[in-house]
Write the structure tokens for this entry.
Amino acid sequence: MQLFVDNLTNLDFSYLHPTRGVVGETWLASVVLDGALDEQGMVCDFGIVKKMLRKWLDNEIDHRLLVPTQASTLTINPPADRASLSWPISSKGTLSTDCPEQAIARVTAESITPESVAQWAITQLQPLFPQSVNKLSLTFTPEVITTPFYHYSHGLKKHGGNCQRIAHGHRSKIEIWRNGELSLPDMSAWADLWADIYIGTEEDVVSTQGEHTAFVYTAQQGEFSLKLPSACVYMIDTDTTVEFIAQHIANTLKQQNPADSFTVKAYEGLAKGAIASS
């Protein structure tokens, strides 16, 4: 007998890629349990499934930086209170970060894919379920988006929750209206500009040595630092909340096109975000 829960939850995080760099991502998680019926006539109580899986996924993947620990190019210290790592990004340069251990997920895989993360997660989750559950299947899928979108990473040092982690992100669509009409050219332009981007805050920059930009800040969870190729960075003069992101896009479009009016609907992952006008 199989028990399933489709679209159990969605996860916002970033991961390391050898050519794209640090990639903001959003996945939907679905689960199937195989097993015998217990004395209640259930494979497992839905309440247990939802609570246990959501808690683990939220704690171990959501708003973290996913690191493929079996990648030959990765340099990383052993698990401890803090994580320190170095990751080359093709011909662009090298990413490095030092942060609290809870800000990363050490995924036992050579690369980060929906399949490799699911397999790693299953090995962690299987022992947590009752003996009636013989097999756990987990799938991660991105939202189906038929209009322009981008992948961005950021960190919000003033946030009281896990958004304060310096390298977490989202896969987000963007909708822009120019003079009241949906403008696909404007949407595509920003999607291209922010493909696999790190959106940084000016006040967090500590150096721009050569072709790299370095950020440092202290938040409630501890001290965070991140250095990455400047080609992977887009700077704004405010914090990088989705509210400020939406307003930045609207203001930039207005500055470039003074005679036009703009409304920007900027998403932060799945089905949430902010609307700004200029």
